[in-house]
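Researcher: Please translate sequence to structure tokens.
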Amino acid sequence: MNISKIYRKRIIPAECILLKDDIILTQNEEVIITQWNTLHPKTEFSRGCSCFFLQEGIKVSKIYRRDDTLLHWYCDIVEYSFDPADSAMTVTDLLADVVVSPEGQAKVMDLDELAEALERNLITKEQMISCLRSLNHLLSLIYRDKFDRLQSYLDSIGL
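Model: Translation complete:
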């Protein structure tokens, strides 16, 4: 697999955008690692890096403040699709997120949006099942103090 373009697809609000400024640093059958600046200026943070876990339905992002200190880890539950003809990957955000503080505290977010998406038939039953399984897997890693397994991919290349 050789990905040269990554699209971010949101369900709420509905949008699909090319992450044209993201820099793909490494990729293999398990992960794709990118570095990026925020698309829209934010007061809390300005840049980050992400590791797309292709088999697990998880994207883990390390978010930095403007002074380059770690703000938090932001974990999206996602679905991946690939277009080999275009060397593109589309990452569909399945709405459930987990924010992990530098101290290791986890906060689950946006489950109300996930419920709304199912109510409005914006996601399929299969996507909901996949989302819940990936979320459970992620939370199990966090609660068993194994989140460092996911963090290590970014840490190992100095991000």
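Researcher: Any highlights?
Model: DSSP finds three helices and nine strands in the chain.
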